[in-house]
Amino acid sequence: MATGDYKQALGKYQQLLKEDPQITDVALFQMGLIYAHPKNPDKDYKKSLQYFKRVIKEFPENNLKLQAQTYASLLNQIMEQNIKNGKQRAEIISLIEKCTILKKDNQEKDKRSNELQHQIEKLKEIDLNIQRKKRAVNHK
Fold it and tell me: Are 43 and 37 in contact (CB under 8 A)?
């Protein structure tokens, strides 16, 4: 694990679990650490939590129990925060999508407003021409 080869470290601890039941507590604890390690590209908090829970359950008198409980508590908090963050991301994405729709709608309304303004200007011009022609007819 110190060299960053997490898969190899996991393999060795799994092998130790099978070969030496006297160090099961240490192997389980170390596997929990490996799965929780921030630099482990295959980190898996759920698996890590399972290993720490096994240490707590299977070795209640062991000095690793307190450390396992601490890590388990921290992992639960991290996973809860990740769930909250995921919900917040989903809400943000939804708001961005709504903003995009509203922006497009506003652009369409601006375009329609410009078209109507152009029509009004044309109608004013037509109205002025009609009034000029009436005045010209009345002056003759």
Answer: yes
